[in-house]
Write a structure and sequence with these properties.
By secondary structure, this protein is α+β, with helices and mostly antiparallel strands. It is built from 19 helices and 28 strands. Strands 1, 2, 3, 4, 5, 6 and 7 form a seven-stranded antiparallel sheet that branches. The longest helix is centred in the last third of the chain and has 69 residues, at 571-639. It starts with 31 loop residues before the first helix and ends in a 6-residue tail after the last strand.
Length: 859
């Protein structure tokens, strides 16, 4: 970007300063300390050269930064000076005298003045003075005048005044009008292995003698060349000292771990201002996971500015270059003419600057931001400043990255501690609701500025055992259970929010156990679906859906989002949330398992109680027919000779019926044992429904049988086990008689029906009709009473073993609690299904269907 123009300041380094191609360290910069040291070196070096060769004047020129021209750094034209003049000056003059010429007396300096301090006389009487290295400084191109020719030839030159005046002039200033001239190149000092590098010239020392008789010899040229080497080494030592100080400042900057980020940036500002002018200084950092620039430190002409985010339109044009990893340097008029847009800072007003440096805060992975220095004066920065500024910026980027990593580690340690606390909270309770609420709360703590909602998958149960409420909720829906924070009162309670598994591939995410990143969900806010209404009400624009899965148990999902925002989750947050969801799934699984075990324990306790009650009841039931048998047998035994035939027949019939009742009870107990161990297998054959209905009614007491209203066509035949079918009718009729008022009828209705009509009558999803396995046509049986009815919460357990529903204290009804369970087993073993339809206060209707068949004589 920079033209080949000499540096502005008097101490700017020569062309090879820090040139990466040459592999050499830079020469002095224009810091205050460096300028003073360079001034002293140039002044003393020139005085020493003049004293060494008994010259009357001289000049020192150094290469500019671009290695295009020699820039005059010091000049002396005046009286001859002798003595110690500077680095490398010998203790005695070594200039040989011309033949016949007396020795020229030395003129020592006054004791209170050094050679660098002599500058109070007029131009002819001054000692060495520094000239500004600016666009107006005296420069020499290769081959111009004595200095340019020495530079071009790369060797000492001893010329007369006429020979000097014959050299090409160009735009270089004229050499002094003296009769004798001597010029030697200044070579960059070599290393321990390479003592001299004659091809790398960094400057020229030129001296002249005003005495026509005082000519310079080749030996004098060698002495001056040795002096030039010492000058080069002195300049090199100054630069090494300056670099050491800069490195010390940077090391202090690097080692200040106790400083916060803002203090670190202010310390960086101070480091920059110690090595270069920077009346305007700024550091801009990129926002995490965002392309925005954030102004962290900004000063301009003594005024500080508050940290702020730069809107897209306010980002300066130089940012594109810096973001690409390149340093921007604007200083010369040519720079400003070529890139006037680079002179805008982006803060502190619209007034452009005249000089600007912008270096990327760059690591090996990315650009973190930009460091900026600027001035209202032109020609402030040269390439040497750009290189030093770039080096500081790279060092600062490493420091900032190190601090960011430290902060990240601290944050990660905090998150891990929170995760550990979350795990402790999960396993502190085995209550399901507590575990779910703890999962949502802990997820909210881990992911800041977010809301976490837990949804659990509704668990499908066997059709006959599902609660009436579950009929209205599909088994494969996600139902909200717990938010991480209390929600506004006007929001729909989360437990009323249902998400179908088909929404956004939730079913696949649960099946595969992988998270979902969902964006642009606000597009669904007005789609008219329940999911869209939930997203709009809860302000979900983007979210992470974490599956809760453990050991193939699909439990639910955890939905994490920032209300009303498109929140970008960091990989660390995602990893912690995934770990949290995994452990949360374990906790919920354990809570569910514990809940099931607790329920099973309670059920077993209830079974034990029911079994004890069953034993008491069955012993009473057995005692009734046995007592009747024993009584009648005793009567016959004691009074047989006095009993007529009619009495004997009656007693014998009673004994037979009691024995049959006892046999039936024993058969049922045998069936119960069989049904507990294995599936009941029955042999079915064509049976007439009317026959077994009438037989069941006939076994009832007279007052009970008179309440039966039967509508059973005689021509209906079914495939069934006749004896078990009779027991089903007896159980259902007996229950209807017992659980209805003594004055109300019991209706028995049998009809021929179709599967489609049955499905339409009971409605879809009825828990126990078995429609899916029914044939095209069925025989339907209904036994209806007009008693108290059965509550909805009791119907799901009505056909369980040992279950007897609670009745009022005024009702004394005994039973084993096995009747309906046996009926269910018998009907299902015969290929049918049985269920109940009831309303409290409106009686109960027990229905079952069996496969129809033709009459035996019609087959």
């Amino acid at each position: 970007m920079r033209p080949s123009m000499p540096p502005r300041h008097p101490v700017a380094a020569p062309a090879a300063n820090g040139d990466p191609r040459a592999g050499h360290p830079p020469l002095p910069s224009d810091s205050h300390t460096g300028a003073l040291q360079a001034y002293e070196v140039f002044s003393e070096a020139l005085d020493g050269a003049m004293a060494l060769v008994q010259a009357d004047g001289g000049s020192i020129a150094l290469l500019d930064e671009a290695r295009h021209v020699m820039v005059l750094r010091a000049r002396s034209s005046g009286q001859h000076r002798a003595g110690h003049g500077g680095p490398g000056m010998p203790a005695r003059p070594s200039q040989p005298l011309p033949p016949g010429m007396p020795a020229r007396p030395s003129q020592p300096l006054p004791p209170d003045r050094g050679p660098a301090a002599d500058g109070a006389a007029d131009i002819e009487g001054q000692t060495t003075q520094l000239l500004p290295a600016s666009a107006t400084a005296r420069t020499y191109h290769p081959g111009e005048r004595l200095i340019g020719t020495c530079w071009k030839n790369g060797e000492p030159l001893v010329l007369t005044g006429e020979q000097c005046r014959a050299l090409p002039a160009g735009h270089a200033p004229a050499d002094p009008d003296a009769p004798h001239h001597l010029a030697v190149p200044i070579f960059r000092p070599g290393s321990l292995t390479t003592l001299r590098q004659h091809s790398d010239i960094i400057g020229v020392i030129a001296v002249h003698s005003n005495d026509p008789r005082w000519a310079f010899s080749p030996h004098t040229g060698k002495l001056l060349a040795l002096h030039a080497d010492r000058v080069a080494r002195a300049l090199h030592e100054i630069e090494l000292g300056r670099l050491a100080q800069s490195e010390a400042d940077l090391l202090t900057f690097l080692g200040s771990d106790e400083l916060g980020e803002q203090d670190t940036l202010l310390r960086l500002r101070d480091v920059v201002r110690r090595v270069m002018p920077a009346p305007a200084f700024a550091i801009l950092l990129m926002e995490a996971r965002r392309p925005d620039l954030f102004l962290r430190v900004a000063e301009r002409d003594g005024m500080s500015f508050e940290p702020q985010r730069l809107p897209p339109g306010a980002v300066p044009r130089w940012w594109d270059e810096v973001h690409a990893g390149r340093t921007v340097c604007v200083s010369t008029p040519e720079d400003r003419a070529q890139h006037p847009e680079f002179c805008v800072l982006g803060f502190g007003g619209d007034a452009p600057v005249q000089s600007l440096l912008a270096a990327p805060l760059r690591t090996s992975e990315a650009v973190l931001g930009v460091m900026l220095a600027a001035s209202g004066r032109p020609d402030v920065y040269g390439p040497e400043h750009a290189r030093l500024f770039t080096t500081i910026a790279r060092t600062a980027a490493l420091v900032l990255q190190s601090r960011a990593l430290t902060q990240h580690k601290l944050r990660k340690d905090q998150l891990l501690a929170q995760l550990n606390n979350a795990l402790l909270a999960f396993h502190a309770s085995l209550d399901l609701d507590t575990a779910v609420a703890s999962l949502a709360n802990q997820a909210g703590h881990l992911a800041e500025r977010t809301l976490c909602l837990a949804f659990l998958l509704e668990q499908a149960q066997p059709a006959a055992e599902r609660h009436e409420r579950e009929r209205r909720v599909p088994a494969q829906e996600l139902v909200g259970r717990a938010p991480s924070d209390p929600l506004a009162a006007h929001l729909t309670p989360l437990d009323q929010v249902h998400l179908p598994l088909g929404w956004q591939n939730l079913r696949i995410a649960l099946a595969e156990g992988r998270l979902l990143l969902l964006d642009n969900l606000d597009a669904e806010w007005n789609d008219g679906t329940p999911a869209g209404a939930f997203l709009a009400e809860y302000g979900v624009r983007s979210c992470v859906v974490l599956p809760l899965v453990h050991a193939n148990d699909q439990i639910g999902v955890l939905l994490v989002y920032s209300p009303g925002k498109n929140y970008l989750f960091s990989p660390e947050e995602m990893g912690l949330l995934q770990g949290l969801a995994s452990q949360g799934a374990v906790a919920i699984h354990n809570a569910r398992l514990y809940q099931r075990l607790a329920e099973e324990l309670e059920r077993r306790k209830e079974l034990d109680r029911l079994k004890e009650e069953f034993i008491l009841t069955i012993s009473h039931e057995f005692r009734t027919p046995l007592t009747a048998i024993e009584g009648y047998v005793g009567l016959i035994e004691r009074h047989a000779e006095r009993l007529d035939r009619e009495k004997l027949d009656k007693y014998a019939l009673e004994i037979q019926q009691s024995a049959a009742q006892l046999t039936s009870m024993i058969t049922r107990l045998g069936d119960i044992s069989t049904m507990e161990e294995r599936e009941l297998q029955l042999t079915t054959m064509p049976e007439n429904v009317r026959r077994w209905t009438d037989q069941a009614i006939a076994t009832l007491p007279l007052e009970a049988s008179q309440r039966i209203v039967a509508d059973v066509p005689a021509e209906l035949w079914i495939m069934a086990d006749g004896e078990r079918l009779g027991q089903v009718f007896s159980n259902l009729l007996g229950n209807a008689i017992k659980y209805s008022p003594s004055t109300s009828p019991v209706r028995v209705t049998v009809w021929h029906d179709s599967r489609d009509a049955l499905a339409h009558a009971v409605g879809p999803g009825h828990p126990s009709t078995g429609i899916e396995r029914a044939p095209a046509h069925v025989v339907m049986v209904s036994v209806r009473d007009f008693g108290e009815g059965i509550p909805a919460e009791d119907m799901s357990r009505l056909f369980h073993k040992f279950v007897r529903l609670p009745r009022s204290l005024t009702t004394s009804i005994r039973g084993t609690g096995l009747g309906l369970w046996i009926c269910k087993k018998y009907i299902e073993a015969m290929g049918g299904a049985i269920w109940v339809e009831s309303e409290v206060g409106n009686g109960a209707d027990f229905r079952f269907w069996l496969p129809p068949t033709a009459a035996p004589d019609e087959r």
